[in-house]
Amino acid sequence: MNKFTLMIADDEKIIRDGLEHSIHWDSLGFNLVAVAADGEEALELFQAYKPEAVIMDIHMPVLSGLEVLEKMKGLRPETEIILLSGYDEFAYAKKGIQQGAFDYVVKINMFPELEEALARLYRVLSHKQEENRQYNQLLLLKNDYTFQQYMKGSPPSELNQAGEPSHYSVASLWLPSPYPLDVIGFYQTAFPLKLILKQDDRYIHFIFLEEGEEFQHFHKKLADCIQMITAHLREIAADAYKIGMGSIQRCLSQIPLMYKEAMKTIDFLRAEDPDNSARSVLLYEDWQGQDTCIEFNNVSSMHWVNWVYTGDAVNLVHWMRTVFAEGCLHKKLSVSDMKYFCLQIAAQFEKMTKVQENKALTLNEFDSIMDLEAYMLPIVQEQCELIHHRAQLQKNENISFIKEYVDEMYRTNLNLEDVARQFYFSPGYLSSKFKEYTGMTFSKYVITKRIETACQLLVRTDMKIYEIASEVGYSDEKHFSKLFTQIMNTGPREYRKHNK
């Protein structure tokens, strides 16, 4: 298991000690490297150790957790931060998420939820690590050894260039549905440039190369190659297609980058023509992409989390389509950016459903934003339906649990407002649901429970009336007798006389 470095920052010693000694860091995949007692010390240790993850209290002396969060993200944007908050600090936690925090955990009974958050964080960090490792090893192309070697930037020895200046370009062809293309026909075509190609489902990827050529000559030959490809597509009656071409480079190690550029250009062409009504060819360097990304810049905004928590598939899917569209239309947004966006969504679903969906970990296979969108949206729809269904069941389960709590604690000074606050309901909502579940108002249920217990004590024991009143939660015997008479239509002494 890979280990990621982690730091703790909290001004409460009991919390720091608890975190340091009560969590099995090794088993969760983390190596605890530093512990800080305030915001200033946290920044010093952060710069010294450069941890990959931080657990930090929102409220700390010297510098607050939110101030430290902003500074940490400025120094190392890739570091992921989990915030610890009090039960009444949701507004601060929300602001922390907006500023780039990975998650927040309420301190009350925090260890189970914190360990779940750390498990999700480990998977996200592992995914990001794998993305970096695979940058020059595109697993999508692993079935073609020659093509894969070029995508790594190191061709097989028998194909090594003889040290002469060379030019390279990658072009990718996409068809709107799987098509029985004659790949051998492409090999048999007398292209003016050397060619290596790879077919994969709806794509054919081409590497064009030539040694000892000037740029203008290579550019002209590349244009001729694309014309020959489009001519072949017309011959086989391919009604619609998109061809994206990466920039022309002289360094073999840039081939993976050119591949990403070609795929990004195809995403743009597909988004610009969603009905695939036209044939399109575009060179990455000729694409004048926009730079402003309104929706994507707001990915960390909490509004989408609310849709996850309520299972609102309509709003969430609509918004995700908007973000994916921006991902396709803006040159600066890469498929890796969109994968991380999907992981953020998946992490919140996992937090809500408590189901560890490994589907999100298969995102490595996607090199197209459009294909990633087609994969993710049905999953989101399915998860929203699951959450919505569970929410309906949970409401009844919560009220049932509160009823059991009242059955245990009815002798104490219970009131609706305190119980609602304890179980994170509004008093109005709890009052309505409790009556719907039990058939009585909250106060009527408590009184009835007390009087029923008093009836049992009157019949089965020799306790004094004032002792029974105290036992069921009333310090005033007269008030108890009055309530007893109202409900039972007889006083406690008469009830005992006739039923004992």
Descriptors:
single chain; 500 residues; alpha/beta; 5-stranded mixed beta sheet; 21 helices; 10 strands; elongated
Write a structural description.
With 500 residues, the chain is an alpha/beta fold. The protein has 21 helices and ten strands. The chain has helices at residues 13-22, 25-28, 39-49, 65-75, 90-98, 110-133, 145-151, 183-188, 215-235, 255-272, 294-297, 303-310, 313-329, 335-353, 369-409, 416-422, 427-438, 442-460, 465-471, 477-488, 492-499, and strands at residues 4-9, 30-36, 53-57, 80-85, 103-106, 166-174, 194-200, 203-211, 242-245, 280-283. The strands form two sheets. Strands 2-1-3-4-5 form a five-stranded parallel beta sheet, sandwiched between helices. Strands 7-8-6-9-10 form a five-stranded mixed beta sheet, with helices on both faces. A hairpin with a 2-residue loop joins β7 and β8. α3 (39-49) runs parallel beside α4 (65-75). It is elongated. The N and C termini lie far apart (69 Å).
Shape annotation: elongated
Strand numbers in spatial order across the main sheet: 2-1-3-4-5
Output the structural class: alpha/beta
Distance between the terminal alpha carbons, to the nearest Å?
69 Å
Q: Outline the biggest β-sheet.
A: 5 strands, parallel
Residues in helices, as a percent range: 55-70%
Poorly predicted runs:
134-143, 157-163
Give the amount of beta strand, in percent: 5-15%
Gyration radius, rounded: 33 Å
DSSP strand tally: 10
Annotation field: number of helices: 21
Average of the residue pLDDT scores: 83
